[in-house]
Write a structure and sequence with these properties.
Layout: E1 17-20, E2 30-36, H1 39-43, E3 47-56, E4 63-67
């Protein structure tokens, strides 16, 4: 997931670079909302999940994580 072009480091002012967030096992990290999914799975109580992407400052190493809410 790429961060929008206008994301800049609050410390250095440079554009953040897109990175992928994964566990040591290679799985993608996700956030889970309190909202149920649509359809049958939602009626069974399965919650919405959104993958995370990271943006990293190439100067100072600041890393920020962003949920892909459009997925």
């Amino acid at each position: 997931m790429a961060p929008p072009v206008d994301r800049r480091c609050p410390d250095c002012g440079v554009t953040l670079e897109s990175m992928t967030v994964r566990t040591d096992d290679g799985f993608t990290v996700r956030v889970v909302s309190d909202e149920n999914r649509e359809g049958l799975l939602g009626s069974l109580g399965v919650k919405e999940k959104h993958p995370l992407g990271a943006a990293v400052c190439p100067e100072c190493g600041l890393a920020r994580m962003y949920a892909d809410l459009d997925d």
